[in-house]
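User: I'm curious whether this sequence folds into something compact or stays loose and floppy. Could you predict its structure so I can see for myself?
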Amino acid sequence: MTNRLYAEFIGTAWLVLGGCGSAVLAAAFPGLGIGFAGVAFAFGLTVLTMVAALGPVSGGHFNPAVTVGLATAGRLPARDVVPYIVAQVLGGIVGAAILYVIATGKAGADIGSFATNGYGDRSPGKYGLLACLVSEVVMTFGFVTVILGATDRRAPAAAASLAIGLALTLIHLVSIPVTNTSVNPARSTAPALFVGDGALGQLWLFWLAPIAGAVIAGLAYKLLAETAGARAPTATAAGAGD
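Assistant: Here's the prediction. I'll summarize afterward.
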């Protein structure tokens, strides 16, 4: 278990440092900013690289919502959920702390929103609470569904990290203007701790909505997998007509 938790810690730290770092350091760089698309690809690449590197050790969740979704689908023992989430949140905080040290390492540095998530006035596009709630639930549902499908024993294992990374990229391309994209409570918690009351006051949404979306995805995929298994022909039936 220790190795698995360490993998989740490192992977989540990398996700926050790479993904949020692209928004804080690179996206706003005068004349050379990478924009929303660049940030979206940065988040996708962080997950893709760490799933490929550490997925064999811990499963490569790096996200409390993913952990809850996999447990709901019966793919992770319930006893592992809390330790995984603790490791992920701590890893995210360390990633955000490293980013904070780098971002404030020049004269006149201003971290701004520090890539935090929000609704209303804290939404990049000033979207309201309901829109942000729906966005986070639906986007997390889609993300966890992709993860469950890509890591299914019937799916080609080599494609899993690519599918997961591209899914997260797509999610960011759609929802950065809405909530600055969370779909990950650890990713939301870590930078919020460095910004203060404004971000912390809205943090509840970025735990509630992603976990709700993940639970729905876990239940739906479990039902789908069980239905598909029940309808699949047995070896005897498949060979009966040969």
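Summary: Residues 2-100+114-229 form a domain with the Glycerol uptake facilitator protein fold (CATH 1.20.1080.10). Residues 232-242 have pLDDT under 50 and may be disordered.
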